[in-house]
Amino acid sequence: MPAAEGVPWTFDEEDEKMSLTITLTSVLVGVAVTAATGSSVLGLSKLMDRFCKDETQEEEQEEYEPILTRFSNGDLLRKTLREHGIETELMENGEILMESSYGKLRFYKEGGEDAYLVLPYDLKDPQKVLEDMEELDEEYMENVQTFTYNGLKERLKGRTDLELESEEVLEDNTILLTLTVN
Q1: b/e for 31-58, b at 16 or more Cβ within 10 A?
Q2: pTM score, two decimals?
Q3: Cα(118)–Cα(103) distance, integer angstroms
Q4: 18 - beta bridge partners?
Q5: pLDDT tens string 24-46
């Protein structure tokens, strides 16, 4: 019997098998994996307001508020930063420090948060920070999707109750997996 619209599973009465369709999108996987309410890109755009100073103001070191990101997995965050050409330093307390030509960022978790907070400091080029964070956010979500996809495929190995029927990469890079439940 074909699936009803909006229902991700079907049941074949003749073969007594159920098929389940799983769709992995980087946005949905990211939301599910991080369970964070903030967005690094939206949060960093708030920084731009702080940098739009009147030229008559004195140059002084400005302190910034930490911004909640969607980054929850430190290993994936460091991998994404390395892929972006940025070296990181992992501190004993789990903080991740990075430095680039436009300034420094400190990623840390606080108070049981699932997602990292980012604290910018010594910034020289806030526009570049915003551009890089937008790219990092997208690349991180792609890494989360790949990590989730590989983990799911690995868990399916050796299972007799589930069988991967098909997989397809859609135009928007969503991965569509169809599983048969035996």
Answers
A1: bebbebeebbbebbeebeeeeeeeeeee
A2: 0.66
A3: 13
A4: 11, 181
A5: 554 444 433 333 333 444 444 54
40-57 average pLDDT score: 47
**Are 36 and 157 in contact, with CB atoms under 8 Å apart?**
no
Positions of E strands within 7-161: 9-12, 17-24, 67-68, 88-90, 96-100, 103-108, 117-121
Query: What is the 8-class DSSP label of residue 63?
Result: P
Measured from the Cβ of residue 174, the count of other Cβ atoms closer than 10 Å reads 16
Round to whole Å and give the CA distance between 133 and 42.
Answer: 10
- Considering only CA atoms, which of 16, 64, 71 is closest in space to residue 38? 71
Centroid of chain to Cα 138: 7
